[in-house]
Structure formats: C-alpha cells, structure tokens
Amino acid sequence: MRNAARHSPSIAVLALIALLCGAELAFAQSGSAGGSIGNDEKSLSGSREPPRSNETEKSGRRSKPEADESGPTARKDGGGGNNFDGAWVVHSRGTTCQGTSSNAVVVTSGKIIGQTARGTVSPDGRVYATTNDSGITVITTGRLSGRSGGGTFRQSDGCTGTWTASKQ
C-alpha cells in the first residue's frame, strides 16, 4: 500500500505530461497545410498545366453513356421486374397441422430476405423460398402479383399449408 502511495504522484505527473504532449501534437496536426492524400494537383483555379504524359487526354465528363453500360431498364439480377421490391407481410395457415403465423420479409432485386427465410422472386412473380427454424425446414412456393400473393408450403415434419402475402 505504501508503494502505491509513493508512486501515485509520479504516475500523475507522467499522465499530465502525456496529456499535454498529446494535445500539442494534435494542435500541430490540425494546422498543417499539406493537402490531401492522393491529391497531386495543387494548382489554383484556371491555372491548370497541360496533362502529364501518363494522364489520359479524355475529359472526366462524358456526354453519352459508353456502349457497354446497361441502362436502367436492363436487369441482370434476375428479379424484381414487376417492382416486387419492398417489405411484405406473410400470413401462413397450416392445413394438415394446426397453427397460424405472420412473418415479415423484404424483397430486394428479386431476393427474399427474412429472419430465417431466404428465397427468390422471378420477374413474373414466381416465389421459391426456404426457411430453417428450430430444425424444421420449410419449402414455400407461390406467386406474387401487384401488391399481394399466395401459395403453399411444406414442412420437413409433414405439415403443409397455405400462405398469403401483402406488400406494405
């Protein structure tokens, strides 16, 4: 206990010195005028020199899109063509087993994502999803149209049922 009391003033002085030096270093850095990383051009507006030999002559602006770029109507991700993207609430009801449930999922670019559900929605609205919850696998199929949809499900424990969905 005596050693701790004897060394505490030394520790306090060292901490104060470190604090003061750290603040001074931070102050020196805040006033530096070195420019940003990767900014090789430090000229004033209107005084640009000709480009270096390793720079391209092409302007940074383009008047038309390049031929290899796809427009907003082209979709390469395979889904969402009928705007199924968004939040959906799915209500399920067992037909060979008892019980109902409601779950929220999100569709993004034709992909279904829920708490335990993963699947796809094709551009024409066909749904295929799987869920694995508490060791039971559920396969869900059906169709979306506009802001609603429906279909069937089959669980690995033998339960089958129907589902309906509405876009939020």
Write structural notes for this entry.
This protein is 17% helix and 36% strand. It is of the alpha+beta class and 168 residues long. The chain has an eight-stranded antiparallel barrel. It has a domain at 86-167: Quinohemoprotein amine dehydrogenase alpha subunit, domain 2 (Lipocalin), CATH 2.40.128.120. A hairpin with a 2-residue loop joins strand 3 and strand 4. The N and C termini lie far apart (66 Å). The longest helix is centred in the first third of the chain and has 29 residues, at 2-30.
What's the arrangement of secondary structure elements?
Elements: H1 2-30, E1 86-94, E2 100-108, E3 111-114, E4 117-121, E5 126-133, E6 136-145, E7 148-155, E8 160-167
Antiparallel strand pairs: 1-2, 1-8, 2-3, 3-4, 4-5, 5-6, 6-7, 7-8
